C-alpha cells in the first residue's frame, strides 16, 4: 500500500469556526493551523486539547487569528510542545497580530487566557522557511519533506506540501488566484494529481462578477463621497494581514487625486506592521519587487498614511473628515469598536467592511440585511486605581509581600537547621564559649551567636566562611560560559525597552504599554447605540470565488479530496460538484471524525542500476531532464530492488508528448512567428484562415477534466495545417 494518510478535523468544518486539522502521515502527526476566533471561546479547543500532547509538528498557513490565534494558549495550557513551521512573514506578522489581540483585550477586560510571555514563548522557536524550500524532517518524521508555497491571500500565506515516498499531500485553504497590488496569485495550479488535496469550500457559493479595477473604483468613490460631505470613514481591519492591500489602494489613490483628507492606521502595532512590510518586499508581487529593484521605491513608504498606536492621538488630531483603519475587524474589541460607538449616530459617516464578520460578532450583526437601527453594546475600559481603592490595593500587595518573605525565610531556616547530633555538640560548646565571653564583660556577651545560625557541620559557633577556590589552566581562570549567557526573558524585556522584539521592531510606546504594571481596574456599562451612519460591505477578503475554486480543483485533479471550513450548504454543494465532475473520492468529515485517505496505489523504492543508467540519454525540459527507460525489476547483491536493463531489444512504444501547453502562451508564440491568430468561441484558437486548435479532456469536456488532456487540430490538410502542427510539436518533448 501507499503512504498512510489520515485527516481529523479539530475545528472548522461545516461552519465558519477557526481552522485546525490533524493530518497523520505514517504515524507522524501534523497540526495544520491552530486557529481561534475573536470571541476566544475555550470550548472550541476541546478537541485539540485531547490530542495536543501527540502532535509532532505544527504548520501555520496564515498570520491571522483564525489560523494561529490558539497557539499561545495551546502551548501554555494544552501541552502542545511540537516544533512550529511557518514563513518569515507569517511568523513576524502573526506575532504582531497576537500582541494586538492581547493588548486590545487587556484594555477592556481581565483577560487571562494567555499573556505576552506566552505569546513570546510560542513564537520564539518558530522554524522559518521560504517559499518552495524543501525541509526534511528527522527522527520520527524521517523521509517526510514539507514545503510552503504561495497562497496569495496574505503576506507570506502558504499552501503546504507534505511529501513522503513520492506521494504528495497538499493543504490549501484561503488561497487567491488573482494577482493584487502587493501579492502575486497562488501557485496551487502548479500541482497536478497529488495523492490528497485538503481545501476549503468557504466561497463555493459566491461568484465574483466585478473586475478588480471596477471594484477599486467603487471602493474609492464610496469613501470620497462621504468625505466630501464632511463625514468620517471607518474601516475595521485586521492588525497585520489584508490591511496591507487596503493601505496601498488608499495611498495610490490619494497620490493620484492629491487629496488632503488624512488617513490614519490605528492599531497597537501599526508602526511595527509597516516596518516589517517594508522589509518583506521579496515576498510581495512582481510589480512591488521590480519597483524597488529599479528605482529603490518602497511601496510601503506611506506618505499619506499616519501611523497611530493610541486613540488619544486620534482624538487630538485636527478636526475634519478623515479615514481611519483600525483593529479589530470583528468590532469585538480594539480601537474600531470605540470609534464605531462614537461615529455611529452621524448619518454623514461611513463604516466600510472589507470582509465578512466572524459569526456571533458585532461586525456580523451590522452586516445583516437589513442592518439594525439600534445595537446594544457593552463598553469597557481600564482606569488606574485611585483614592481608597489604591490604598487598599497597596496594603494588600504589602501583605502578600510580607507573607511571601516570611515563607521564604521559613524555607531557608528549615534548609539550614542543624541535625540533632550537631545541636547537642553545639549546646555544649556554646555554653563554654558563653562562659569565656562573659569573663570579658557584658558588652561582649552573645556577640558570636546573636542573629546567627551556625553551619550544621560545625562543632562550635563560627562566622560563615566560604573558600572560593577557582580552577586555573594555562590561559588563566577557568570560566563557566553559562554565567555569561543572557536569559531569554531578560533579552525579551530588554528588547521591548529598546524599541522592539529581537529585531527591534516594536516601538517604544507599545513596549511601554506592554510593561505597564500600574494598578488598575475595568469598568463597564451597556449602551444602546443608534446606527444612523452608512454601513457598506465590499469584498476585499482576497479569496478565490466559487467558480475559480472549482476550476482550480479540476486543474489539480487530486486522487482524493478532503473539504473543510465552510457552512454546510457550501460544503455539500462543492462536494457534489467534485463527485460528479472531478474526483470519485471526496470526503467532508465532521469534528473529530477521522477519514483514511491512504493512496490505493502501491509504492516501492527501487535503485537505478549503473548498467541501466550508462545507456540512458537525458534531454533538457525546463529545469528538469527526462528520458524514456525500458527496464525490468530485479534485485542487487544486497537484496534491494533495482531497475535492470532488459536482456533483449525493447519493443517500440507509443510516442509520448511531455509538457503542459497553455493556449494563451501558444497564441503569443504563434503571433511572434507571424501567424494571424485569435480566440474563437468555446476557448478555441483560430490559427490563420482554416486551422482551429482546441484543448479538451478525455471525455471531450473543455477545461479541467481529469486525466491527460488532448490538443485537437481541426482543418483541411494544407500548408497552414502542417506548419501549425510543427509549431505545436515544438512546444513539447517527444519520447
UniProtKB/TrEMBL annotation:
SMART domains referenced in this protein's UniProt entry, alphabetically: Beta-Casp, Lactamase_B
InterPro entries membership: Beta_Casp (IPR022712), CPSF2 (IPR027075), Cpsf2_C (IPR025069), CPSF2_MBL (IPR035639), Metallo-B-lactamas (IPR001279), RibonucZ/Hydroxyglut_hydro (IPR036866), RMMBL (IPR011108)
GO molecular function, a single term: RNA binding
Residue ranges annotated for the Metallo-beta-lactamase domain, each copy included: 17-226
Beta-Casp domain: residues covered: 243-366
One Pfam family cited in the UniProt record for this chain: Beta-Casp
SUPFAM superfamilies tied to this protein: Metallo-hydrolase/oxidoreductase (SSF56281)
Gene Ontology process terms (BP): mRNA 3'-end processing by stem-loop binding and cleavage; regulatory ncRNA-mediated post-transcriptional gene silencing
GO cellular component: cytoplasm; mRNA cleavage and polyadenylation specificity factor complex
Primary location: nucleus
Keyword Acetylation: no
Entry keywords, A to Z: mRNA processing, Nucleus, RNA-binding
Superkingdom of this protein's organism: Eukaryota
Record localization: Nucleus
Similarity-based family: Belongs to the metallo-beta-lactamase superfamily. RNA-metabolizing metallo-beta-lactamase-like family. CPSF2/YSH1 subfamily.
The protein's name in its UniProt record: Cleavage and polyadenylation specificity factor subunit 2
Organism listed in the record: Arabis alpina (Alpine rock-cress)
Organism lineage string: Eukaryota, Viridiplantae, Streptophyta, Embryophyta, Tracheophyta
